[in-house]
Amino acid sequence: xxxxxxxxxxxxxxxxxxxxxxxxxxxxxxxxxxxxxxxxxxxxxxxxxxxxxxxxxxxxxxxxxxxxxxxxxxxxxxxxxxxxxxxxxxxxxxxxxxxxxxxxxxxxxxxxxxxxxxxxxxxxxxxxxxxxxxxxxxxxxxxxxxxxxxxxxxxxxxxxxxxxxxxxxxxxxxxxxxxxxxxxxxxxxxxxxxxxxxxxxxxxxxxxxxxxxxxxxxxxxxxxxxxxxxxxxxxxxxxxxxxxxxxxxxxxxxxxxxxxxxxxxxxxxxxxxxxxxxxxxxxxxxxxxxxxxxxxxxxxxxxxxxxxxxxxxxxxxxxxxxxxxxxxxxxxxxxxxxxxxxxxxxxxxxxxxxxxxxxxxxxxxxxxxxxxxxxxxxxxxxxxxxxxxxxxxxxxxxxxxxxxxxxxxxxxxxxxxxxxxxxxxxxxxxxxxxxxxxxxxxxxxxxxxxxxxxxxxxxxxxxxxxxxxxxxxxxxxxxxxxxxxxxxxxxxxxxxxxxxxxxxxxxxxxxxxxxxxxxxxxxxxxxxxxxxxxxxxxxxxxxxxxxxxxxxxxxxxxxxxxxxxxxxxxxxxxxxxxxxxxxxxxxxxxxxxxxxxxxxxxxxxxxxxxxxxxxxxxxxx
Length: 621
What we know:
alpha/beta, six-stranded mixed sheet, disordered N terminus, Rossmann fold, 12% strand, 621 residues
């Protein structure tokens, strides 16, 4: 848990000081250099919109019709005023019905147009979110280890939702606004070019204001997106560590840290609200002044020019003028939404451009019958961080059907061996072969289907017991699930639950004990029936009764298979065919239990210490 850095306010948003602040400022500088890339981002969005292009085209066609109908309304209204002024009741009724018809048709088409546009948007955003999730699944563990979970989640949720506002808020209806503006300009010039020029005189200050606000709005929405990710990351950290926070009475300190993070998020939103409100108010003010100037010209100014403007024309012109500023205001509002959407798009497509992905391999296949050697490590070197080696020139062979145990102190490199064998990380140097095939030639998915893995920290997913035991299988063989649970001694306990093997597993398996979760992991591995088994300290955190069940499950799981077992309790691996002792990233000793005890080296020392601990614990009990 890290403390929240002090913040300073710049450009209407809070920015952390120190290294994080430098990174944030660098991000804003880089983002500012990308101004004008909206077109490029929209082009990148097109492949996700293309499958729904018919809906978009239908919606835009409806928008054109609605715009045309809107242009006729002021003319019809002027006819009604003229009929009323001359007492033509028949014309008044007819034109009133025309106006009512225009309004009804426009509103009906408006519903259809908005509905179809949002359908297209929902489909496109669903496709985009799937692409983000697919990219997330392909990220290397090295990248995931260095990125807060909350930030990854934000890419698939908040950032995609921000981009979806293009459709949900009708931002793409700006096309209709532009068409409406063109039509209104033509109509105003046709009615009275002098009054039209008065209206058009307001456009330059509006354009200057929009350009002024544009950059600041975009920056504010970038800050919102970044601070949203930061808040999600912090919340995820606090929820996962809630037990520790409460155990150390850190609630007040956590509240203060969250308040600071929340304050920076609030300040970023306040900046966006300020610029949006400023633009709206300025356009409304310009529109009011413009309408007043036109009415002045129609009422008083004409006396200077001697030009008379009929009252119906004034009414129609006033309506056009009102409609003229409506699309201007709408475009400004939608432009603000566009800035939010584009800031989300930048982050989404930046994520989709991440090159730190799992390798695809060369298409080679693993054949368990191709070599008598199941696994071969040859001078393998690896480090998680540059300059801090974890494995140093590690070499060993595992024959098919052989049971190998890896022991050593914490940090000696045992778990790293398993991670490299599964190709969760890429080697720095050396090579690893599985049944004679170098793993760098094999796609990770092809490689991993030959392994059954039982980790120390078991991950259970929301769903049923059967779904979790049959994880990775194309279909669920219910009888095979029951058999696997029976082998690990958990079937009776599962059947006693409501639903049996269909009983739900809550988030993180919280409705199962640690021992039951470990037994479920063994059942999962037994059901998989892969030729290679990896056990990573699978009995380290269980009680004696559960350990006895796991011993039986382990014997069944390892029978006839090649296995590599990382052991914390040395009593569990005394029957291994070979034991490799790791020390500071190297293999210090190797042999059977008897051979290593006779050698009197590191293994013997570890065994004596552990046996002494057990005797001390028994005496205290």
